[in-house]
């Protein structure tokens, strides 16, 4: 444990966050905390970063830890703040967090889950009784229980935290009538309180619009996707929408596609659309141009599935007739949120805003939707595993129907389809945000106090010219000056060192 190293990491975290890279700053602060867990200042700064990243639950946890560790100077910890004023009906997320968060863990007996992928299966059972929109602002967790990690049971937990005093009753009642949960439930089937989160990990959250978001919502997103696919399949059939026609060719890129006498030559053609062009994303219309042009050479397979990236991913595989190796594409799906869509772009091109905007435009990202197809979606996938084989001439109908069913926006001619959305307006400050902002100010004051304590004392301000007396050294003639108040006191010449006295006194 090293306080000096923790201070260095803390300062680096502050520098990164202040320079516009809060995620890198967060990692440095976490390192500082690991280096010295008893020092409160990194906890305070981490709380502020979590606030800026839109994670109020983690922000509060860190700020409370900072107060517990006496971040704000010597002496006893500051008294708790007075309770906030009562929230209006439908009060905000931040008001309720100050009063505690209801926590419910749903416990599944893994031995009763007939699937090796039991985590996603447990979420699938959970989502059979809920839509994310019913749990707005909830924070999700999942994982093996702490007792399971210690070898005392074999239980997987799905946990929900939400500002709702009736959350436990709502969850228990809904799942209590689910036959699949009743058959798979552990004993006890539910746990309540923050202690139930021991051993679990973050599983995303549900935003104020009712969207499941977060890169860590892997199993939750897969389970939700399976449930939604099953619901769509079970829904009463509706009249198919009128087929929307499209321009042919879709773009100059697919205007003059070369001729091939075999699919192998087509798929291996290094100068053609499948390499130099498909490495750049293609629009659904361009993909259909390719499929229709080479219809006599290709089998086309389509699969809709849930994955860690999206609960409704579309995979299109193009294979030589009868073969198991070909080209594959993924597109026409939703990221968890607009922010996650742009984060996916940043993960590929870095933080340069122009590069992010350029890739977003190529991918056809509008809001959370990615309309265009990216050419790296499991090229060696067995086509027999795909759910649907589609005639090449029917692919456009399939894609356009899906676009309309999911609400994927059409591109507009007036502007690029994927310009990143403007940053959301800052919400009105609420009592808890004010408390977090106060901690930010206190943390800054504390850092400045530490800097002042570590810095050498500042030299006294020089006296004004009218308060000085001037005289010459009797030995070397150096012109000297001293404060008038020193009159009669001994001093030395700054040039030759000869003792002398300041005139006056």
Structure description:
By secondary structure, the chain is an alpha+beta fold. The chain folds into four domains: 3-71, Tetratricopeptide repeat domain (Serine Threonine Protein Phosphatase 5, Tetratricopeptide repeat), CATH 1.25.40.10; 98-234; 263-406, no CATH class; 468-502, no CATH class. The chain has 17 helices and 17 strands. The chain has helices at 3-18, 22-35, 41-52, 56-68, 93-97, 118-127, 146-149, 167-176, 179-184, 218-234, 263-268, 273-277, 284-293, 338-349, 353-363, 395-406, 431-454; strands at 102-109, 139-144, 155-162, 185-192, 201-206, 212-213, 298-305, 313-320, 327-331, 333-334, 365-366, 369-370, 388-390, 468-472, 479-483, 490-492, 499-501. It has a six-stranded antiparallel β-sheet. A four-stranded antiparallel β-sheet has the order 9-8-7-13. Helix 1 packs parallel to helix 3, helix 2 (22-35) packs antiparallel against helix 3 (41-52) and helix 13 packs antiparallel against helix 16 (395-406). It is flat, with a radius of gyration of 33 Å. The model is unreliable at 71-100 and 413-445 (pLDDT under 50).
